[in-house]
Amino acid sequence: MKKQILTLTVLALTLTLFSCAEIKSAGRTVGHTTKEVTTEIGHTTKDVTTKIGHASRDAVKSVGEEISD
């Protein structure tokens, strides 16, 4: 009886360790993917903001030049 309980306990611990490794691996994959996506979003946002800023600056300069003429 004790041998069966010991065998079941060892089996349960082994399965738990394997499942923890799988969960850890899945978590790592999700974490890395999230980091890559948010970095890409940040870079794209920066690029768009820069383009808007440059377009606004050019428009203000153009209006200023038209008023001066």
Report on the structure:
The protein has 69 residues and is mainly α. 97% of the residues lie in helices and 0% in strands. The chain is rod-shaped, with a radius of gyration of 30 Å.
In what range is the share of β-strand residues? under 5%
Helix share of residues?
over 70%
Q: Tell me the series of helices and strands, N- to C-terminal.
A: H
Q: Could you give the distance between the termini? A: 101 Å
Q: List how many beta strands DSSP finds.
A: 0
What's the multimeric state?
single chain
| Shape label | rod-shaped
Average pLDDT rating = 90
Q: What's the main sheet like?
A: none
Structural class: mainly alpha
Radius of gyration: 30 Å
SS field, number of helical segments: 1
Low-confidence stretches: none
Task: List key phrases describing it.
mainly alpha; 1 helix; 97% helix; rod-shaped; single chain; 69 residues
Write the layout of secondary structure elements.
Blueprint (H helix, E strand, L loop, with lengths): L1 H67 L1
Summarize the structure.
The protein is an all-alpha fold. It has 1 helix and no strands. It has one helix at about 1-69.
